Each structure stands twice: as structure tokens, then as C-alpha cells.
Give the backbone structure.
Amino acid sequence: MATDLLLCNPYFIRDDPVTRQAMDIYPLLGHGYLASYLEARGFGIEIFDGTFEKDLNGYLDALDTVRPRMAGVYGHVISRRNAFEFARAARERGLPVIAGGPDATGYYRDYLYAGFDVVVRSEGEETAHELLEWRRSGADRALLAKIPGIAYRTDGGEIATTNLRPFIADVDSLPFPRRDPHVYAPYVDAWRRRHGYVSMAIFGARGCPYDCTFCYRPVFGRNYRRRSPRRIVAEIEECAARFGATQFRFVDDTFVVSRPWVHELSDLIDERGLDVSFEVLARTHLMTDDVAMDLKRMGVRRIFYGMESGSDAVLTRMSKRLSVEDSVKAAEITHRHGMEFLSWIMLGYPGEEKEDIYRTRDLIVKARPDVLSISVAFPIRGTAFHDEVKDRISRKRPFWRRTGENRMVWQGRYPDLFYMFARRWLHKEAQLSRHAYRQWMLPLHLALRAAYRLGMEAISITRRHPASWATGGPLGVHEPGPAMRNARRPRARQVTGSSLDGAAPARTPDNLSNRTHGGSYV
């Protein structure tokens, strides 16, 4: 069968030291869902995954070998520059190029100005199907106006959007994601080498019914749609048989929403006698002993909680719809039932004062998370948070370029150095609260805790902001990225452009809002 579409993940793990160290990475489920959905409708789909590649050359070889009719590139915050370069390589071969994923959905203007023909906005199976039919019928650009859920450039060069497509209501109607051996083999080997077992990502539901002000749900939206437990268990069994997977991470935006659904899934896993473990994301205010018993029974070993802050005032500003007390109780319940939990904390949200960070310290000491992940607040276009601070976002470096960069890109209450000290102080407080140190090292840990706190206090007195907040050049400039290293192609040219209202297109990326590595055009 001829290849109608070559899907590409332009991410290089070699340029991401945080993920390379943790090696807790998964192939894109979105590509698998697209491949199986489109293949079932008679299209030839191939997948190229750049995660373990050294440079762009592997993709160039794939383009020349597969010779697809159209190229699709995944758009994500830390691989945006690579995505632009991969797209240019496809266009140089005369191929129409489409983009999808969270960053492309939220920042479709940037992608179109960088040379993409079409951006798939939101959930993508049905939209990709119509785009492939459009390609087969001659690719008349005027007909793009009839395809819901896209952004594109007209023949006159203007950017146009169509109405968003309704979400797929029956997610059980979707086939299992296609898991190609050539894509999955490097991930399986990496997991075995680093962790001694194989872990895989899986969806239990799409969408999130909550509306946190900092969170961006560009792909699945807030329309919450669950898969049936029987379909989930069947997919788990297939992955265990094919790849030897013994752990699964549910990459849902939130897993614990319906207690009856969790109970049914737990019963079925228990009934099938599956010897596997899970990681799930949950909201603290929904955690009860009954839910914890079901999670423990189904094999959950770690829960991810977005506790975010130890200040109820900050949580209210975030529209988290939970309290500090909810987080403390969830921590107690989780530990009581023998499960680990990771706590996400966000510093620097608008309205947060130094005293609120001290309250966050109190929460961390009480909750004693097994793993603590602290980030500074990142404004993502399309969120209420972004709307509030958009006039204070740096024009010089408005986005992150690697996982865990943790740099303030907007002018907040305090400068970057303050939050660096705050993060280190909170991590040290967490370490001391868990007694996670050798006894003879205690004096050093106490000294470091005092130093970090002193640094935070000293910076808070001045409240100065670094000179880097000075306005930079046009935000539409595209800098050659790491994909260009050693690639067999000429040096990348700069791409500039202006939006229809006369302003240069913003380059602020999306954040890892769901904090997982999964999802794509869908």
C-alpha cells in the first residue's frame, strides 16, 4: 500500500537532560491512534520517531524511502524548533505538511508562519481523515474551508480557521493504538536497561472536567469521555503479551473522576489476575479510603497529585476547586494504603507572596511526598493565567526549550533567582521531612537549608528583576535548533511573519500541562 501520511515525532532525547536522566518516556499514543484509525479507513500510514535519533538525517532517510503523499509533524513545547525544521525538510520535497499536538493547537499562527500548510486543532482522528481525503482529491486549498477543526493559510497568504470539530463521544469506537515494533523497541530497551522492567502508556479517558486557570487542554478539551474497563483491560493484556510490559501509566488528564468506573476497572483487573502495576493522576479532593482501596487492589503503586500550593488563597486564584486540607488528607490516605505519591508544586502564580511559599513548605512537611516536582508558573496561551499576565511576558525568551528549564518567562512578583532559592529550599525541606539522608550528612543538609532560605529572603527584599526583561526582537524569528546538527542540508534560513492584525506572531509555547509524555494530534 502506498504511504498517504508519514507521522513524525521531532523530539530528540539527547537534547533533554532531565528526561534522559529519568528515562521515563513513552512513544506518542496519538500517533498510534491516528495510524490505526486511518489505516482502518484504507490509508497507508507510517510513523517516524526521532526520540533516539542523533539528528535530522533519520527523518530525511524516511522521507526519501517512504515517499509519502503528505507529512504530519507533532508540535510540542520543547521540540517546537525541531518541528519547524522537520516540516521544512518535507516541504523541500514538495509535500503538504500538517501539524498537530498541544503546542500546534494553541500556537497555530506560529506553525503556519513557519511553513506548515495546515494545523489540526484539537482531537484529530476525524480531521486527519478528511485531510487525507482532501489530499487524494487534488488538494484544492479552497476546499480546506469545508474541513472542521483546522487552521490554514489561504491562497492569498492569510490565516483562516474553521469551526472546531465536536469531540468523539464514543471513545470505545476507536481501535487500539497501533504500536509498531520499530517505534516501540528502543523505548522497551531503554526501560529495561534503566529500570529493569517495561512500562507503557495507556489512556483510560479523554478530557478533563475541571477548569484550573493555568491548565491548557487544547487536544481533548474539558469534555470528559471514559473508555470501558473491558476495552482498557484488553489493551493491557495485549501490551503485556507483545512487549512484556508489567507497568502502565494512565496518561489521562485526571484518572479518578468516577468512583464506580474505578471500582469496575479494579474488579476486572482482579478478575483477570493481571500481575501489573499502574501510575495514575488524581485530584486530592476526590481521594477517599474506598477509592484508595480500589486503586491499591488494581495495582496502583504511585499517584500523581497536583497539590500546587500550601495557600488556600493561591489555590482559589488557580480555580483548583480543592483545599490545602484536601491535599493533607489525600497524602495520609495514600500512605495508609501503601502507595507512593508525587506532588506537583507551582511557584510564582499571580498573587502569591513569600508568606504563601512558607505555607507551601508547611504542606510539604505535613504531606511528605515520596517525589516532589516544583516548577515556576508558566503562562500558556488560551488560559486565564496567560490572559492575566500576557503584557508582562518576555519577548526575548518567551518559552522553554527543554524539560525542567524552570525559568520565569513573565515578570512576576520576584525574579528568577528568588524562585531558584525557593525551589531548593522546599526540596531540602522535603528531604529532611522524609529523613532521606545519611545521619552523618545531617549537618550539611541543615546548613544548605539555611543557606537556601537566606538566599530567598535576601532576594525578596530587593525584588529586582533581571535585565533580560528588556524587549527583544520580533517574536516571529525562528532560530535553528538542535535538529540541524550534522544534518545533510544547508543552514536554515530565518522565518519571519506578521499576523493579520499587523503584530508579529507570538512564540510563547504551551506548557507540559498534563505533565505526561503522551497524546498527539488526538
